[in-house]
Amino acid sequence: MADNDTEMGGDSPEIVAIDTGNDADDWYGGDVATLGDRIAAARDAAGLSSKKLAKRLGVKHATVLDWESDLSEPRANRLSMMAGLLNVSLMWLLNGEGEGVAAPGDDSLIPTDINDLLLEIRDVKTGLAAASDRLARLEKKLRQTLKEG
Asked: Against a cut of 0.70, is the pTM above it?
């Protein structure tokens, strides 16, 4: 989907590619594609604009554009969040191995509505993980405070 998020008309749902793990050409492999290439491909396959991805990750739009252009790289926490939001593995983003998006022209397609549900599930999981980390930090702080006083 293009960056302007226009919807396709007609009765047929929009189709988004997914990984089958059998990419004979290794289109997004470490020797062929960069981290930025894989981020852009996963974002496109997820049907997100770069602006929407930036908003979901809590970063500036220019930051995502820099990542996709290989001008900078995301920190580990953002990379992990991105993998979850884009429904790809962290290893695939880093080196092209693991669960990722299908190479262009692959026949492994799913309807956009299913992909949207998968993205929402990943978004909730990412939020739960962040909340769990925050809860652990608060519990530790409470234990320390009780111990001191």
From this structure: no
